[in-house]
Amino acid sequence: MSYIKEKFKAKADELGAEVKDLLKNHGTKKVGDVTVAQAYQGMRGITGLVTETSLLDANEGIRFRGYSIPELREHLPKAPGGAEPLPEGLFYLMLIGELPTEADVQNLSSVLGRRSHVPNHVFDAINALPLHTHPMTMFTVAVMALQTESVFAKAYAEGMNKKDYWSYMYEDTLNLIARLPRVAAYIYRRKYKNDQHIQPDGMLDWAANFAHMLGYEDEGFKELMRLYMVIHADHEGGNVSAHTTHLVGSALSDAYLSFAAGMNGLAGPLHGLANQEVIKWILDMKEELGGGVPTKEQIDAFVRKTLADGKVVPGYGHAVLRKTDPRFTAQQEFAKKHLASDELVQIVWRVYETVPGILGDLGKVKNPWPNVDAHSGALLLHYGLKEYEFYTVLFGVSRALGVLASLCWDRALGLSLERPKSVTTEWMKEFVEGKVDASAE
Ligand code: HAX
User: Fold this and answer.
1) 126 and 196 in one domain?
2) The pairing of beta strand 61-64 with beta strand 54-57
3) Is 315 exposed, middle or buried (0-12, 13-18, 19+ CB in 10 A)?
4) Are residues 251 and 352 in the same domain?
5) Is 318 a catalytic residue?
């Protein structure tokens, strides 16, 4: 067993004992109540899940095992000559709960490199789809095709002991994370670059190799990929992609099945697809106004038109956050350092000066501030990655780090099949009239 796997097992045994204790001594203690509105309106604010890898604070933003994004950028190991954290390090942190050393990160980089082989039938499955297929559809199809490689599914079919679930989930997790950049890059090159594929470079770290396979050799783009893969990796457990992965995994579906399910959620425009919607919206605005950086008055008018047309302003708002997303701020800092004069970046910043006031004045929007998706497109476009339908695939590759680390924990802690209670509106009406007793259900 590798030393990282052994370390994970030791941590899991330790936490497993604490959870057992917690359940034995406090299992009946309430962590909250559920209102009728919460049952209808997306279960906001209900504490009903446990996710070890990260925790979201409405005002401060995300913390990964206690570390904020600025702290990660400071403390996680970097590539030689680089300034941005290596995503392998974040994966280690989420999995083990401790900051990795340089050696841990190098070890993970080479383990992922060794496991990155993608069988040909996966490429055949992608090739079988028409070219106009959305890249996120290609991505989930490819992940499903990769499921043939699940060691968890194979071991389960052969009759595995439940004590070993975590071990096979761990293997699937590393294999899948190792393979995703190759799969995603293949989709990109097939759809947008005439099927001209680029072989992996085993000397590069995970994110830089991904950039290389996509066809981007600029050091700035590689740094952007490292940062991008870190900040999109995890956002506690309740968001659609994380929750779906966890839910499907709770049926003992393997990592491939669970992750593909999560990716179908990420592909929704209110979640990960918002990153393509943002850039589409900005490019539409630019075109309508005849090019250049629009004035605040012009942006104001375009935002109001978007709202009047019954659409949301993409990249703004959040179900939990109530301040500017620190993932937006991290990208803004990157842009200030590397591409401050870029025209699209200037527009993103001017939109930031304009939109929160308008959304705030509507009175109903709980968070008028930008989220992670408001900035990323402008950075990618700067380096030439203009095919915005592909942006959510980049998000998906990154999200694998968090949701798959969480799946390892789910199996190590033996978390149960997820199955909340649902009721009908008829039941709700009888409940509010005092005719049924919720505690009896
Ligand atoms: N533009 C216009 N209206 C918005 C809005 C926005 N950016 N954000 C919220 N609202 C509206 C809602 O549509 C809702 O209107 P109705 O009552 O008429 O239905 C009202 O304000 C209250 O919504 P909320 O409670 O503030 O927000 P929710 O928790 O329901 O939804 C969303 C959160 C992120 C889905 C929402 O803010 C939104 O649609 N934003 C735009 C899409 C987007 O950027 N999504 C990415 C989110 C981050 C993420 O997951 N990235 O992957």
Assistant:
1) yes
2) antiparallel
3) buried
4) no
5) yes
How many Å lie between the centroid of ligand 1 and the Cα of residue 417? 30
Instruction: Check residue 78 and report its DSSP letter.
Output: B
Please, what is the end-to-end C-alpha distance for the chain in angstroms? Answer: 46
- With beta carbons less than 8 A apart as the criterion, state whether 343 and 282 touch: no
In a domain, 142, yes or no: yes
C-alpha of residue 271 to centroid of ligand 1, in Å? 10
231 and 376 belong to one structural domain: no
My answer on whether 101 and 170 are in the same domain is: yes
Whether 228 and 361 map to the same domain: the answer is: no
Does 306 lie in the same domain as 234?
no
Distances (CA, A) of 37 to 63, 126, 212, 422: 28, 42, 48, 14
User: What tokens does 321 get?
Assistant: 């956050």
pLDDT tens, position by position, 36-95: 999 999 999 999 999 999 999 999 999 999 999 999 999 999 999 999 999 999 999 999
Q: What is the pTM of this model?
A: 0.97
Q: Relative to the CA of 374, which ligand 1 atom is closest? A: 44
Which of 246, 318, 375, 382 is catalytic? The answer is 318
Structural contact between residues 54 and 236, judged by C-beta atoms closer than 8 angstroms: yes
If one counts the domains in the chain, the total is 2
Contact 204, 216 (CB under 8 A): no
Distance CA 401, CA 147 (A): 17
Rounded CA separation 329/280 (Å): 21
Residue 349 inside a domain? The answer is yes
Question: Does any ligand 1 atom lie closer than 6 A to the CB of residue 315?
Answer: yes
Question: What's the Cα-to-Cα distance from 71 to each of 77, 101, 235, 261, 323, rounded to whole Å?
Answer: 12, 15, 16, 31, 18
Asked whether the beta carbons of 285 and 299 are under 8 A apart, the reply is yes
The range of the structural domain enclosing residue 62 comes to: 54-273+399-413
What pLDDT, in 10s, does the model give residues 323-355?
999 999 999 999 999 999 999 999 999 999 999
Which single residue is written with the structure tokens 């446990």?
50
Q: How far apart are CA 328 and CA 193, in angstroms?
A: 29
Half-sphere exposure of 222 (CA within 13 A, CB side): 19
Whether 121 and 206 map to the same domain: the answer is yes
Residue 387 lies in a domain: no
pLDDT bracket for residue 397 (50, 70, 90): very high
Q: Which of 373, 375, 382, 410 is catalytic?
A: 373
- Of 206, 249, 18, 227, whose CA–CA distance to 112 is shortest? 206
Dihedral, CA of residue 234, residue 240, residue 245 and residue 246, to nearest 10: 90
Neighbours of 405 (CB within 10 A): 28
